[in-house]
Write a structure and sequence with these properties.
The chain is mainly alpha-helical. It has 2 domains: 73 residues, Trp Operon Repressor, Chain A (Orthogonal Bundle), CATH 1.10.1270.10; 64 residues, no CATH class. It is built from 9 helices and no strands. It starts with a helix and ends in a 6-residue tail after the last helix.
Length: 152
C-alpha cells in the first residue's frame, strides 16, 4: 500500500497537479507544518544555530532537533529536497535580479551612460567587477537559503 502512495505522487505531472493533490490530502496547517520542517532542514544545512532558526521561523528547539536527527540519519530525503530547493531559489533570484537590472537599464540615466560611455567607464568597470564577484561568491547561495517565496 505504501508503494502505491509513492506511485500516486510519482504519477503527478506538474506543479498544479501536485498542489491539487496535497491540497485535497492535507489541511493548510499540515502543509505549513511540512514546509516548516523543510525550511528548518535548509537552515540546518546552512549551519544556522538553533536559536537563529527559532528566531527566523518561530519554532521550538524540539522541532529543530527532530529535523536535525532526520538529517543525520542515513536517508537522503531532506538532503535531496534541500539541494533542489536551493538551486531553484538561486535560479529565481538570478531571474529577479536580471529583471530588475533590465528595468534599471531602461532608465533615463542609462541613455546618458550609453551616449557618454567613457565618462562612466570607471563605474562600468566597478559594476562588472562586482557582478563577477557575485557570480564567484557564495552570496547568492546565502540569499537562496533565506529566500522563501511564500513569505514575500
Amino acid at each position: 500500500m505504501i508503494g502505491e502512495f509513492y506511485d500516486a505522487i510519482d504519477f503527478l505531472e506538474n506543479r498544479d497537479e501536485v498542489r491539487y493533490f496535497f491540497k485535497s490530502l492535507l489541511s493548510p496547517e499540515e502543509i505549513a507544518m511540512f514546509m516548516r520542517r523543510i525550511e528548518i532542514a535548509v537552515l540546518l544545512t546552512a549551519k544556522f544555530s538553533y536559536g537563529k532558526i527559532s528566531q527566523i521561523l518561530g519554532v521550538g528547539n524540539d522541532k529543530i532537533s527532530n529535523v536535525q536527527r532526520a538529517l543525520q540519519q542515513d536517508d537522503n530525503g531532506y538532503k535531496i529536497i534541500v539541494q533542489r530547493l536551493i538551486e531553484n531559489r538561486k535560479r529565481r533570484l538570478k531571474r529577479i535580479k536580471s529583471e530588475n537590472k533590465k528595468a534599471t537599464d531602461m532608465s533615463p540615466m542609462s541613455a546618458i551612460k550609453k551616449k557618454y560611455p567613457a565618462y562612466f567607464l570607471l563605474n562600468n568597470l566597478l559594476d562588472k567587477a562586482i557582478e563577477k564577484l557575485d557570480e564567484d561568491s557564495k552570496e547568492l547561495e546565502k540569499e537562496a537559503l533565506l529566500y522563501t517565496p511564500s513569505l514575500k
